Amino acid sequence: MVILVTNSESFYGKYARREDIPRHTYHYSEKTLREYAKISGLTIRNVFYTDEIFDGRGRGTIRWFISDLLRIKYEHYYFKNINIIKKFLLKGAYIIDAIVFNLHWESYFRRSGIIIVEFYKE
Q: Which sign, positive or negative, has the C-alpha torsion 76, 80, 85, 91?
């Protein structure tokens, strides 16, 4: 049995403040999946972390970190009430995000948005 789930430890959902797909469902970690397998009498054969099915890379992580440091709230974005210096810093964070998250390195560190798990019954 093969399942695809959203990774509760992904940069995309946890820090970039984006919603992983599938929408409105639970998020899992590898630890949780191993516990479910044990309870169900299954064994995990393979675990793959990927962003090939859905591009759940962490773009936005640095921008939101800078936003938090600058105390910029959602309302400031909504009402377009951000001063020019903060806008400049956010633009820099956006560029850094684009560079840092251009490569697909999150799957190597098990922080990509999607986990594919292969279960089997012994």
A: positive
Domain boundaries, the chain: 1-58+104-122, 60-100
Q: What tokens does 10 get?
A: 């992904």
- Give the whole-angstrom CA distance, residue 78 versus residue 104: 31
List pLDDT tens digits, range 11-70: 887 777 776 555 556 678 899 899 989 999 999 999 999 888 877 788 888 999 999 999
Euclidean distance between CA atoms 114 and 55, whole angstroms: 9
pTM for the whole structure:
0.68
User: From the CA atom positions of the chain, what is the Rg in Å?
Assistant: 18
**What is the spatial distance between Cα 78 and Cα 90, in angstroms, rounded to a whole number?**
15
